[in-house]
Protein 1
Amino acid sequence: MERLLQNNKTYTYYDYPLESEFEKVIVENSDAIFGKNTIYVDIKKRIGKSILTIPDGYLIDYTFPSNPRLYIIENELSSHDPFKHIGSQLLKFAISYKDSGFEIKSFIKNHIAGDSLLKEKILNAIKLSEYKNIDELLEALIFHKPVASIVVIDKSTPELENVLSQLTMDTDILQFQTFCCEDDKIHKFDPFNEEVRDIQETKFSKIDASDLNTIVVPAQLQGFKEEFMQNNRWYAIRISASMLDRIKYIAAYQTAPISAITHYAEISRIEKWENTNKYILYFKDKGTKINPIKLESKKKGAAPQAPRYTSFAKLTSAKNLSEVFI
């Protein structure tokens, strides 16, 4: 069993006995988990007509102020059956949501109106958007944009990813775990919109999140030749739901000994990758060769170890690798 060590104290994994206890911790730490540019609506109301269900909560995400989005929240323990419990619950959400738009709008609006802090937060977000008021924002989120979901769970499994990959509703999986040493606790979790928040929270970053439209992937030689150049695709990429309709380009960073971004391609479509919660990106055409954007020899840790976002303008104007991401 995994353990954490801090200040000579060993923290052991805490197995939540009740979902209600797990959910309480999620709500208490919602700002850290979901980020400052979100509003967690902790409200449980039954929705649906022929199929009834009760979401654990809702998240209004305005990471991209001009394109906010609503998520249904499902807080779960891995001890629950991924198909019978989690999968069927999310399927019920997707079906019931379509029948319950006016109800959802009403109780979210009333909930925000009764919480002065939430109201102030959403009014500040509206100032950065194209919407005039809370009513207009909720109208757009619920009736004019596709709903997505977030599953917060103590342990993600391949079985869960398999089940969620069958749903048409975009779903993010966030793993949240707790470790204890006597009465002291440490939480370990996957942040919502992690890659985008890394850019927003970097002190010296000059990239505006609204300009993010390019994903840079690390590629070893064989994979680069076979997939990127011959098959005109790249697969098994984990992409948050908020970025799926924003990615327009993909760039390949060839790992050592080349250590440079050498090609890019325009994206034609993005699909689920097999029975996983990852994606495959298909290109419109062959990859385009560019002047190598090289890793500076003295920049330790600057080489992408996983997919990273940037803007196409940054990519095409960069003289070295670090300029792509700042």
Protein 2
Amino acid sequence: MISLRNVSLSYGSQVLFEGASLQINEGDRLALVGPNGSGKSTIFRMLLGETKPDEGKFEIKRGIRVGYLPQENAPVSERSVLVEVLEGQDPHDNRAEAKAKSILDGLGFRQSDFDKPVRELSGGWAMRVAMARLLVQEPDMLLLDEPTNHLDLWSLLWFRDYLLGYPGTIFVISHDREFINTVCYSIVSVQEHVLKVYPGNYEHFVSEYAEEKRRRESAFKLQQAKLDQMQEFVNRNKARLSTARRAQSMMKKIEKVDRIELTPESKRLEIRLPQPGRSGKEVVQLKGLGKSYGDTVVYRNLDFTIQRGWRMAFVGPNGAGKSTLLKILAGVLPFESGEMIPGHNVVVGYHSQHRVTSMNSESTVLEEALGGSREKSQEVVRTLLGSFLFPGDAVFKKIRYLSGGEKSRLSLLKFLLDPPSFLLLDEPTTHLDMDAVSSLIDALKGYEGTLAFISHDLHFINSLADHVVRIEGGKVDVYPGNFELYQWRQKKAQG
């Protein structure tokens, strides 16, 4: 279907690929993984024909239609949502329209949204329009670059299930390991400037990669011991006339040895959070709380009590009021009736990808991070910044030059350096890669305060949540356990 053969590509002195090959067949479900900057998006651009390799061949079967969903760059259009999604379809094809409406519904759009101009939507919702348009077009191959970034949990679950029945080939870049495990059958790993395919899910890839690394390290040690012996023979015999020729011959053998090289591995970052002050047993009580947006009532007479130490995942359909409740608990959104009673010694911290804490625009990333830490040294903070995608000299970049995603990551890091006793997180993993998500999970596992979060990352949810808070129809129901257990209970209840 599509193949890359012995592809090499460099940008100046930076070598991305050297003799890399990849065969993609019809029906393949592949996930592309690799360190930041290793060339994952470049592979997609090659498959789209937008980037040509310096050497090697790119071949694609004639007539193959490739559809691409980028991370960003949502469509800006005067057309309505429905008309945009139906672009290129026969206007008299009722089946296409029905399909488009069904997909839009699955992605969280209400019927009243269908006639809205796309230009009035937020960037995230406009990206959902682009996704819906792609699914309606149903190309032979889908290239999806972080497709879950702009989805809430409910629309992600729908999208995941939809892809399971998709008739074409799927190639995904994603930091969501649960999504990869469900949708993809093989992992394509970018390593040492080549592409290597591992059949199986992400966990199998991690296991296989670790075993390969162990074998390579073992072979490296054996080779080094052998080379040391050979060098010792040379050193012993090179000065004596009777053995100098043998020493010279051994030296030539040493020079011809094909050396095993170990790839520098980034160390797994361990974030140890300073522990917050101990709060009262009841962290917060909501009594008879009411909240509306104009004529739309979100909550009426809501009673809800949160206990110390709970790790809560807020879940529910789009528009149910998850972010509203999180903002009310954070004290950043007023309510019209009822009361909110904070517990003893409760300090609240709120992080959202859309709400960045007050930062000095003239400060550097490092200065801002150090300002939020009680006890971390500059060396430790710089290591943490590297994990959160601020490597090297990027820590000296001024805040005013940061993108929204960079500010969001920095805001999250500041919370981790000095966490409050009640931590509220809205989609904390959106701007993180897979390693940073793992580091964040490990850090929050050691956090002794109370945690409430909204996330569409199932691995993140199931790794941390010990309570699921289901929000729907103005009601809040609490279920002990993680989301996997919650889903099992829901399915069992439905028979």
